Amino acid sequence: MKKVTKILALMMCVVLSIGCLTGCGGKSEEEVLMSAITGINNAESCEVEVSMAGKMSMKMGEEAQDLDMKMDMKGTSFQDPLKMKITGSVSTMGQSTTMESYIQKENEKYVLYSNVEGTWTKMELGDLDTALSSSGMSSFSNQLSADIGKYTKKEEKKEGETTYLVYDYTVSGEEMESMLEGSTSSIKSMLGDSVNAKEYEDLMNRVVSSIGNVTLTVYVDVKKQEISRVEYPMTDMMNKMFDEFMKYIKEKALEEATEDEAEEAKEIMDSIEMKVSDMNMSVSYKNVNKAEDFEIPNEALKAESMTDALSSLE
Q1: Are 212 and 244 in contact (CB under 8 A)?
Q2: pLDDT, one tens digit for every residue, the chain (314 residues)
Q3: Secondary structure class of 52 (helix, strand, coil)
Q4: Which residues contact 295 (CB under 8 A, 6 or more apart)?
Q5: pTM given for the model
Q6: Among 10, 40, 50, 247, which one is most buried in terms of CB atoms within 10 A?
Q7: How far apart are CA 8 and CA 53, in angstroms?
Q8: Comparing C-alpha atoms, which of 68, 87, 59 is closest to residue 279?
């Protein structure tokens, strides 16, 4: 069960990476769109608000449980040098968990500081510069291509006094794999010796490869000529990820089962289901190039290594 928890945590990191790193005067709509894309791709700082909500069902044999899931996050990011702050909460089964995280570069390597329910830990992320560069995520939203032909215009929307140009933009499965390649390849340095890092890296590559195309909806503030928010339909993507994850769990269970246990193990594994419904995520951009600076708390800098914390669970 502890291994399953660790794998699920890594999967959620991927999900969050997708979200946090993605992203009129007399001008034509195309000129406004181009100005907005260029602005977010070249931003030196930005604040984001991430909201994700939906339902997940878990079934094992005759027992089933439906879970409401909700995540609300706020983040501040600077590009040169790269540093990030993320705060927020995750709620499920009537329970809410608060978290606070920071990333900054120390001695040529990036370090993640995390506070979950009052306990600080730190984790070395390794060569994040190489990972971000190889993934195409060395700036805020490089996956939002400057090729106007990739955007499909939808009906304009007005919310209060603000008018938005709305576009669908599809990220292909190949582009998704390329964007996340750096993140999954850095798992070994993140986990250290506490787990079989190669095994988890292979799993995450399998999970990412299963995602396929993802269509985002991009909202452009006409007056500010800025990307206001990007909406992500997460249901299909997360179901594909969970399906691949469960395939992996079943394979491992059967590999470890003895000949006498194999039939029972297969029956148990086949009875387990994890499904997501109505899961959507929205990422809003605020204060582009005007983000408020921050300092990492002293108690975070003195935190225990997350690798040591994970080792204590073994």
Answers
A1: no
A2: 444 444 444 455 445 544 444 444 456 888 899 899 888 888 899 999 999 999 988 888 788 888 888 999 999 999 887 888 999 988 887 788 888 999 888 877 788 888 887 889 888 776 555 544 433 333 444 557 888 888 999 999 999 999 999 999 988 777 766 665 555 544 555 445 545 666 766 777 788 788 888 888 999 999 999 999 999 998 998 898 888 888 888 888 888 888 888 888 888 888 888 888 889 999 999 999 999 999 999 999 888 776 555 455 44
A3: strand
A4: none
A5: 0.75
A6: 40
A7: 17
A8: 68
Three-state SS at 215: strand
Q: Tell me how far apart the alpha carbons of residues 53 and 312 are, in angstroms, rounded to a whole number.
A: 32
- The number of angstroms, rounded, from the C-alpha of 27 to the middle of its chain's C-alpha atoms is 34
User: How far is residue 212 from each of residues 16, 29, 209, 241, 242, measured CA to CA in Å?
Assistant: 17, 30, 7, 10, 14
Q: Quick check: 220 and 227 in contact, CB under 8 A?
A: yes
Residue type, 269: M
Helical pair 235-256 and 2-21, crossing angle rounded to 10 deg: 150
- The whole-angstrom separation of Cα 252 and Cα 163 is 52
Per-residue DSSP letters for 235-296?
A: HHHHHHHHHHHHHHHHHHHHHHS-TTTHHHHHHHHHTEEEEEEEEEEEEEEESTT-PPP---
Q: Position of tokens 């086949």?
A: 270
CA pair distance 188, 109, nearest whole angstrom: 14
